[in-house]
Amino acid sequence: MLRSGRSILALAVSFAFCAQGADISTRPDEYVARAKQFFRRFYPGLDSGLRAVTIDGNRLSNGAASDRTNSFTIELYDLDPKPGTDAAACWCSASVLSATFIFDWQTENKGLIIMSAGGSVVNGRTDRFAKEMNSHPKWSDTQVTAALNDAGAKFGPHHKAEFLRALPIEELKPWVGELEVVSADFRLRDFDEERRPSEVDPYWIVQAKWHGPDGREKGCTLIFEPFDGKLKSIRRDF
Hints:
Blueprint: E1 11-16, H1 31-42, E2 50-56, E3 71-78, H2 87-92, E4 97-103, E5 112-118, H3 120-133, H4 141-150, H5 160-166, H6 169-176, E6 178-191, E7 197-211, E8 217-224, E9 231-236
Antiparallel strand pairs: 1-2, 2-3, 3-4, 4-5, 5-9, 6-7, 7-8, 8-9
């Protein structure tokens, strides 16, 4: 069972998201620092007004987070009040980026084994497209695919070669380790409980093989959105 850190209490800490990256000497077990580095690498261009909260369990208004906590969520909020609102209202809105991280504390490299990201930074364009497409329930997959291309998706189902070239396998190595891509498939729709295609929800699913430094091999699944190829999730088999 994964260790959640020295304390089972919820811990929280605020930090300036766009501050300088962690030092290159960051240790493998400095999980929060590595998660910050992950954000900066895979979700670039975020506004400097954004602030993040690191959470283990329930949010606390104040506290000191342990960088040794290997399972946590980071949520990014825009804390700059908009015209007609106050600062407190910003906390009531949805986070623009939320990601859950779980690192494998039992191994020397402390690799990232689960990452799941959501929010408008990752899903904004896909969510807007899906909402529009689901207002046309009789549209065929061909029509929806054409609309996806017209909406500016860089990695629709007919752009597999481009998608494979853009996969950040080498960039993921400091966090995940050695990955070997096995397959990549485009999914246009969700499936209902009987595995029948239902609402539009486009994404790429990549099946990979993880090669551990000790010779172990595990399956690893990665999900990417189709507009800019942003990473939505990583899940390595236990």
